[in-house]
Design a protein that fits this description.
- By secondary structure, this protein is of the alpha+beta class.
- The chain has a single domain, classed as Aldehyde Ferredoxin Oxidoreductase,  A, domain 1.
- 30% of the residues lie in helices and 25% in strands.
- The protein has four helices and six strands.
- It has helices at 18-23, 26-38, 91-97, 112-121, and strands at 2-5, 10-13, 51-56, 70-75, 82-87, 102-106.
- The chain has a six-stranded mixed β-sheet.
- It starts with a strand and ends with a helix.
């Protein structure tokens, strides 16, 4: 998992434990678990302390039909609770091919365009 801290303009890589893959099947389960552990319940969804997760499921990047979904998870500003959405396309496969199952982004960039440049440098 790639964790990007926009305010410090740094990133680090965290290993996902094999036990977590078994307990929380697929990217949706893993992201819900990380949201639970990384974001305190009192966190404002629009604050820099909130995380947004982008993840590829276990079959993304394979030849399995309809397995190309990317899951997006965060704390919702509409409900102040768990938010999950998914989308098709190639993003999940390219994420997987780059060596990551999940990208977690948090904090706030001091410069707008730099956010894009930081992620592109990775």
């Amino acid at each position: 998992m790639l964790v990007v801290d926009l305010s410090r303009e740094k990133y680090n890589v965290r290993d996902i434990k094999s036990a977590d893959y078994k307990l929380f099947i697929g990217s949706r389960g893993l992201q819900a678990n990380y949201l639970w552990h990384f974001v305190p319940s009192h966190t404002n969804p629009l604050s820099p302390e909130n995380y947004i997760f982008f993840g590829a499921g276990p079959a993304v990047g394979t030849a399995i039909p309809t397995a190309g979904q990317t899951i997006v998870t965060s704390k919702s500003p509409a409900t102040n609770m768990y938010f999950k959405s998914n989308t098709g396309g190639h993003f999940g496969a390219f994420l997987r091919f780059s060596g990551y199952d999940i990208v977690a982004i948090h904090e706030r960039a001091s410069r707008g365009p730099y956010t894009y440049m930081l992620i592109m440098k990775l």
